[in-house]
Predict the structure.
Amino acid sequence: MRRRVAIVGYAQSHHQENMQKTREDMVFEVCDAALRHACLRRDDVDTVVTASTDFLDGRTISSVFLSMAVGAFMKDESKVEEDGTFALYYALTRILAGIHDVALVEAHTQSSTMNAHQVSCFILDPQFDRRIGVLNDIAAAALQARMYMHKHGVSEEQLAEVAVKNISNAAANPWAHRNMPRVSVRDVMGSKLLCDPIRELMMSPMSDGACAVILAAEEKARKITSKPVWIEGIGTCQDAYLRDRKLDRLDSLETAARTAYRMAGIKDPSSELQVAEISEKFAHEELMIYEALGLCHEGEGKKLLEKGTTARGGKIPVNPSGGALGADPVCATGLVRVVEAAKQIRGEAGDCQVPKVKRALAHGQFGICAQKNTVVVLGGNGS
C-alpha cells in the first residue's frame, strides 16, 4: 500500500445477553467512546461505514435509523451487510484511494432483538435447502465438524479443550459475554447438545454488542496519536455456496491470509506474528483456522492445541481475549477482533495482554461454515 493507514482509536461495548438499551444508544456510546479514545470530534471524521444486516436489525434500510448515532449526519456514509472487518476493508480502500483521510467504522448486533440462528436459513438456496427445512447454520456447522474430525482424527474432547481455552481467557476480559473462569472439559461435554457434535459451550453465545474503529491516513494518524497501529496487510475472499465447496477446509480463509501476508511481507506467520485474534463461531473452526492461516500444516491444528502453542502463554497465543466463544455480537465480532489485536500492540489489553507484541493478526468471517473471510495484519511503530 503506497498510502499507509493506521488505527488511531477504538471502543467496544460490554457484550452481554440482553443490554437493556436501544440499539441507537448502544451504537452512540461506542462511537462516542472511540472518538474520545482518539481525542477527535465528529467534525474530524470524513466518512462513516457501518456493518449490520437488515435481518438482524429487524427492519429494512436499518442504517437510516443510526445515521445520527454514528455521527454520519451530513457526512459521507455507507453500510456493509456483513461482518465489521468487511466494513473496515471498505473504509480502508476509501482512504487509500485518496477520497478521505479519516474514517469511522462501526459494527453491531442486538441478538436479543433477532437471534441470528433463527434467520440463518435465509442464506440457504431457496429452491432446495430452504424448502427441505433441515439445515441452518448450526446443523451445517455440525456436518462440517464431523467431516473435519473424521478426516483428521479429532475427538469431541479436543473440541472441548478449544472451548475451555477461549472461555477461560474470556473470564479475564471485562468486555466479554461469558464469565466462566473455572470451566472444564467436563463442563463443556456436559453442556446441552444442539446438533451432534455441537454443544452449547462449543458454540459462540449470541450477544448484544457494538464496536467502533477510527482509521486515519498516515499524515493525519501521526498528528492524532503517538501510538498508531498500522494496517500492514489485508485480504478478503468469498468461497462458493455450501454444497459447492470442500467443507473440511477453509479455502477462502487461506486465500485471504495469503493476500494479507504478501502485502505485509510475512513469509512465516507462526514466527512473525506474536498474537492472533480469530472469529471462531464454533470450537472446531479454531483448529481449521490455525491451518488456513498457515500456523501449521493441514490436519495438525490439534497438535498446536495439545502443545499449548496457542495458549495465552504459548508461542503464538490465539484469542487471549476469549474470541467469539467469549462473545459474539455477530456483525461486530470480527471488528472486535481487530480492536483486541490493536490493544495488544498498544499494550492496552489489561489482564489479556501478551508480552512484547509488535505484530498481530485479526480475522473476521461471515456466512454459513465460514464462507467469507477477512484477514488483517496489524503492526506498531517498531514493526
Summary: The two ends are 15 Å apart (CA to CA). Residues 137-152 form the longest helix (16 residues).
